[in-house]
Amino acid sequence: MNATSPKSSLVKLGLHTNKQKTLKVMVLGQSGVGKTAMVVRFITRRFIGEYDPNLEKIYTCQTTFDKEQVQFDILDATGQLHELDGVSLESNIRWADAFILVYSITDKCSFDECSRLKFLINYNKRRRKLGSASKDYTLDIPVILVGNKTDQPGDRMVLLEEGQRRFRELSCACFHEISVRESVEQVQNVFRDVFRFWRVFSKFPKLKRSTSDVAANDGFVTPDSGSCSFYDASSLGHSSSGRRSFLVIGSDCLEESDHTESTDEIASNSFGSSRSDMDTPFRSRASTDGTLLSRPRRWRYPPPGCLLPHSNRVERRMSISTRGSNASY
Ligand SMILES: Nc1nc2c(ncn2[C@@H]2O[C@H](COP(=O)(O)OP(=O)(O)OP(=O)(O)O)[C@@H](O)[C@H]2O)c(=O)[nH]1
Predict the structure, then answer these.
(1) Which residue, 20, 79, 272, 295, shows the most beta carbons closer than 10 Å to its own?
(2) Is the complex ipTM more than 0.95?
(3) Which molecular function GO terms apply here (predicted)?
(4) For a substitution probing ligand 1, which of 27, 28, 30, 33 has the most ligand atoms within 8 Å of its CB?
(5) Is the pLDDT of residue 306 over 90?
(6) Is there a contact between 235 and 171 (Cβ–Cβ < 8 Å)?
(7) Mean pLDDT over the full length of the chain
(8) Rg of the chain in Å (alpha carbons)
(9) Is 311 helix (H, G, I), strand (E, B) or coil?
(10) What's the pTM?
């Protein structure tokens, strides 16, 4: 007698899918910043010192984040981009679902290179907003900015504050400072964030999103001690009363409400203050966590959140029931 499980029946009917998610990540950055070391650290948990710099490779690995199985296809792009013609770089960019932009905190040039690479990502991944004028574009792809080699503080050439500022200017999803050499957990946190932001971005591609989506499953992203991560809620469109971003240092998660203050101030405030209301649970998904900016048609890429001071923007909240394709951007 053939026994058919309810699940397999649903699969046959197409109502249930046990498909594993595949997330295509491209790791980009100047040569020598530690891209290969980071990818290999994530996959094998080991730090391996030297690699062939000309090797461009896709690594595949399966892991579980937030109780979901995910397959990572990770393209470790060679940093010697002058040898890579623009066409293949751009087609690689088009291939990816998410990006990790890596620089070394000991190398200012690698930091500046991230701006150029982010421009290329924007150029190749932007999509025209539905129903909008021809100049309005949106980027539904998470880009994570990572400063590596924090184990070399004596050689530091890029300050933490500069990294924070750049991540906002480039409208990245979040920012980490890590040491691939020292901490496998910091590397895993980077990939966990890639997964979380990608999940949110692909779940609601046409809606503004909130950090509550990112942290929906099991609380907040809390990198291990020694790592520093910065989240810009504005990159996910979250705000009801102002721009909110989250600085995560060790196990403390701190919230600051307005980006118009100087980044130095942000850093010192954040470092010095205690745990904030990030400890309280986010409101439920069904609540009004969407925002609609008053002048979306004027937006050009990059989103004006990083160009205009917050005080120039008027924001109003909208109910989830009123979200429709016209509300997307
Ligand atoms: N001190 C320190 N060195 C690191 C760290 N991560 C990588 N390195 C070293 O940096 C050098 C370059 O690392 P790779 O992983 O080959 O850099 P890459 O970005 O892949 O370079 P290309 O393959 O040329 O694009 C190697 O000597 C690594 O051992 C780190 O966190 N700290």
Answers:
(1) 79
(2) yes
(3) G protein activity; GTP binding
(4) 33
(5) no
(6) yes
(7) 67
(8) 20
(9) helix
(10) 0.64
**Residue-wise pLDDT tens digits, 120-149:** 999 888 765 555 555 555 667 899 999 999
Cβ neighbours of residue 314 under 8 Å, at least 6 residues apart? Answer: 293, 294
Structure-token pair, residue 76? 């470790």
What separation in Å is there between the alpha carbon of 151 and the centre of ligand 1?
A: 12
53 lines ligand 1 (CB under 6 A): yes
Whether 156 is in the pocket of ligand 1, judged by its Cβ within 6 Å, is no
pLDDT tens sequence across 64-96: 999 899 999 999 987 665 545 566 788 889 999
Q: Which residue has the higher pLDDT, 304 or 21?
A: 21
Q: Which two tokens stand for residue 287?
A: 């609540």
Inter-CA distances, 221 with 69, 208, 216, 252, Å:
18, 20, 10, 10
**What are the start-end ranges of the H helices in the chain?**
6-13, 35-44, 86-95, 108-125, 160-169, 184-203, 211-214, 263-272
Q: Which of 200, 197, 222, 208 has its CA nearest to residue 279?
A: 222
Ligand 1 pocket, 51 CB below 6 A? yes
Would you identify the CATH topology of the domain 22-203?
Rossmann fold (3.40.50)
Please state, in angstroms and rounded to a whole number, the distance separating the CA atoms of residues 238 and 315: 10
Residue identifier of the C-alpha nearest atom 7 of ligand 1 = 34
What does each C-alpha distance from 108 to 50, 156, 298 come to in angstroms? 22, 9, 33
Which structure tokens are listed for 150? 């924090």
SS3 117: helix
